Amino acid sequence: MNSTEKLKEINNLLLRKTFKVTFENVALHFSEHFDIVSYSQRAFYRDIQNLKEVISIRYPTLEDDLGPLLKFSKSENRYFYVRDDISAFPSLSERELTQIASTIEFNKHLFTDGAGEGLVNKLRAIFLENSLTEYNEILPWPAIQLIKDGERSGSEQLKKLIECISGKKTIQLLHQGLSKTSKTKTMIGLPLMIKEYNNGWYTGWYLLFHEIFRTETVIEPQINGLRLLALDRIGSIQEFKTSAKVKLDPSFNPPDYFKYSFGIIRNNIGKPDLKQERITIKLEAGNWIHTYLEKYPLHFTQKIQIVNDDTRKGILELDTEINQELESFILKYTDQMTVIAPENLKVTILQKITKSINNYEYL
Questions:
Q1: Are 252 and 221 in contact, with CB atoms under 8 Å apart?
Q2: Which helix (H) or strand (E) holds 190?
Q3: What is the H or E stretch that residue 172 is in?
Q4: Per-residue DSSP letters for 224-262?
């Protein structure tokens, strides 16, 4: 029984309401069920500490709200999770998950709108998450973010990518741009995260990737140097052996790549100093979009100031990078909102509206 298996077993005992988790009880359990007779108190406390770290990584936001998620009760003389619905590891075994996935796959006709395929995708993600524990160091960020059910182009690459992300392994891939004239490019680098995103046309998977050169001796990714590649544009993936050492700054967090982006498409490679700007938009009087934005914020930096309660006229502020998706959103609702600042965004929107008007005039 290796160290990870011990952690999983103690986690399972913590999930059993009838089991009192103490050193004495856990040591007895290991002795009776796994023939482990040399489990020490020191090893128990080390395992408890490791479990605290694993559960902290698994539920960072929850720990921020509630504090430590694995605690010791002096009055009851036992360790316990502060909530019944949390676990340091997925509670189903890989064999059980495989059986469930196979059953759903066989009965996909019972689901509508791709829901069956979506459930299978999520179960596959659980398999992959389960497999992360085979590595000595668990990633401090999620390797995959799923947002919507359904089939995805590029899904055949998923397992290989997740294994390389989790093991911090460099890869070599073939990538082709969306344009018909784009040539296939060979790229070498460190895969960091799979991001799922609904861009309005379809929901797809994207790979957050740090490109490296063959001569590099240290791989040290920075947020603004990362690339985003659509999985359905990647032709092949294979591990690339290199003597370069991966060095990750403690503050490095790949999801921050999307923090100030409206959507996911950024121009950070073309503009290395790309930063967020204060976007100020007037919400026109008598519009419906103000209520919609209150219920479904565009961005975590969103602020709305009401100018007139009767007409619902207001000012919308965002701190985001200016990109094509932001411009497209404003143009989509241009009868409901008007850009006030910055001036360059205001001019861009005005130019596009003017061009559109001219196109209609010459029909």
A1: yes
A2: strand 185-198
A3: strand 171-175
A4: GG-EEEEGGGEEEEEE----PEE---TT--GGGGGTT-S
101 and 9 together in one domain? no
Of 116-130, 132-146, 335-349, the poorest mean pLDDT is in 132-146
Strand partners, 198: 203
Residues 339-353: what's their mean pLDDT? Answer: 94
What would the DSSP string read from start to end of 252-293? Answer: --GGGGGTT-SSS---TTT-TT---EEEEEEEPTT-SHHHHH
Q: Are residues 124 and 148 in the same domain?
A: yes
The rounded Cα 182 to chain-centroid distance in angstroms is 29
Q: 346 is in which domain, residue-wise? A: 277-361
Decide if 200 is inside a domain.
yes
Q: 281, 338 in Cβ contact below 8 A?
A: yes
Query: Phi and psi of 4, rounded to 5°?
Result: -65, -40
Q: Which of 121, 211, 186, 115 is nearest to 159 (CA)?
A: 121
Q: Which residue has the higher pLDDT, 137 or 99?
A: 99
Number of domains comprising the chain:
3
**H or E stretch at 120:** helix 115-131
